[in-house]
Write a structure and sequence with these properties.
Elements (H helix, E strand, L loop, with lengths): L19 H13 L3 E4 L6 H15 L3 E7 L6 H16 L3 H11 L5 E5 L5 E5 L3 H6 L2 H4 L1 H9 L2 E7 L10 H12 L5 E7 L2 H9 L10 E4 L5 H14 L6 H10 L4 H14 L6 H24 L3 H11 L8 H6 L5 H13 L3 E4 L2 E4 L2 H11 L5
Parallel strand pairs: 1-6, 1-7, 2-5, 5-6
Antiparallel strand pairs: 3-4, 8-9
Helix pairs in contact: 1-2, 10-11, 12-13, 13-17
Bound molecules: adenosine-5'-triphosphate and magnesium ion.
Length: about 375
């Protein structure tokens, strides 16, 4: 039987809970051409939200086309332009003929070449060199807008893992170029999102940066426990199994309401449940997930310095004043300047982040492992 819980892949509507407010806000932005920026830590549900909002929006609005790019693996400006051109053309063309026609029409200057792979995927490349393209990327940066005008469409370009542009060679110049083009667009809007909160905040809320005030910034929050409880119970009853509200709540709490882990833990509990789940099943499933992740957590921990670990220990012990004399001495953290450095570095390493004014672990399972199995803190 198929499991009623899904993680690590995009949820179908049936696997998706809550987020009504965010869906509405995002769809309104799509329909009215407002740029959106979505920021949340890893695996809370950004990609799922954008994909499901897109599906629903295009169903309701026939003039709307949504282009999805994931730039996780994109390492340079040139690769970015190629991907953008390819995806925009694919999403807005009605078939091969149209794609070939549009490529010739809109990207003529770049001397495009189109190849088709055996699985009939098209791939557009350019004969002009990088030097030349870099000087005048206008045709590509305005491609969506030009197509939208010509075909009377509204286009949304969604770019996942957008923070990666900060790693390109001349990030400021590149960002200025993007913004200069994109802000003139009337029929194309952008939805930019990613998981590196500190990098994205620098791109979008630092007034010295080109993308300052580019659009509506949404901070995705965790799904509340009550929603998880009804979701988990429903998925159990739909598949003729039972789980009590207390056990469903325990799943959400153990996974710290983290979307991916709630689904993973719920799935493990479901697998072990014959007809009715029990509190022991929930605890055992949780311990098993922690065990499976142990090796990974050992490696992460080995890569941290003694002081970084002491800093994490202080957070796990809920020390409120990390730079107070007493805390510095108790955990041997050095000076308050060292603490600031430690914090910064651990944020860069994606171990912690400041969320709603509080320093928090990004991975609740790692937090649990570190506290209970490494520092032996009574939890
Ligand atoms: N609204 C939701 N309801 C139920 N489960 C969800 C929801 N949103 C996300 N999930 C679960 O969380 C998992 C991770 O979601 P998703 O990949 O969308 O997160 P993300 O923020 O894009 O992660 P990453 O930072 O790794 O790109 C999904 O596979 C799904 O199992
Ligand atoms: Mg994602």
């Amino acid at each position: 039987m198929n499991t009623p819980f899904a993680y690590g892949k995009l949820p179908q509507e049936i696997d998706f809970t809550n987020r009504e407010k965010e869906m509405t806000r995002l769809k309104n932005n799509f329909n009215s051409g407002v740029n959106t920026i979505i920021i949340s830590p890893r695996r809370w549900g950004k990609t799922s939200l954008v994909k499901l909002a897109s599906l629903s929006a295009i169903k309701e609005n026939k003039k709307l086309k949504i282009v999805h790019l994931d730039i996780f693996n994109i390492r340079s400006e040139y690769e970015f332009y190629l991907l953008l051109a390819n995806e925009v053309l694919k999403a807005t063309s009605s078939g091969w003929d149209d794609l070939v026609k549009n490529t010739r029409l809109f990207l003529k200057q770049l001397m495009p070449q189109i190849s088709f792979s055996p699985d009939k995927q098209s791939n557009i490349s350019f004969s002009i060199g990088w030097e030349q393209l870099q000087k005048s990327p206008d045709d590509i940066l305005n491609l969506a807008e030009n197509i939208a005008i010509k075909k009377d469409l509204n286009i949304i370009i969604c770019i996942d893992e957008f923070q990666n542009i900060a790693l390109f060679e001349h990030p400021d110049t590149f960002q200025r170029k993007l913004r200069a083009h994109w802000q003139t667009h009337q029929k194309t809007a952008y939805c930019l999102y990613g998981s590196k909160q500190h990098m994205l905040l620098d791109v979008f809320s630092n007034y010295a940066m080109p993308f300052y005030k580019f659009g509506d910034i949404m901070f995705l929050e965790k799904i509340p426990t009550a929603d998880w409880v009804s979701f988990i119970q429903k998925r159990f009853t739909d598949t003729k199994k039972e789980i009590s509200p207390a056990e469903a709540e325990r799943i959400a709490v153990l996974a710290d309401n983290h979307s991916y882990y709630v689904q993973q833990l719920a799935q493990q509990v479901w697998f072990r449940t014959g007809k009715r789940s029990t509190p022991e099943i929930v605890e055992n499933a949780f311990e098993d997930i922690i065990n499976q992740l142990s090796l990974l957590f050992v490696n992460v921990t080995d890569s941290l310095s003694k002081r970084q670990l002491s800093f994490l220990e202080a957070i796990l012990n809920n020390e409120k004043q990390l730079t107070s004399k007493a805390t510095l001495a108790k955990y041997n953290l050095g000076t308050s300047a060292t603490v600031i450095q430690l914090r910064k570095r651990l944020i860069e390493l994606d171990i912690i982040d400041e969320i709603q004014g509080r320093i928090q672990f990004l991975d609740p399972m790692y937090k649990h492992w570190l506290a209970t199995r490494y520092f032996n803190i009574h939890w």
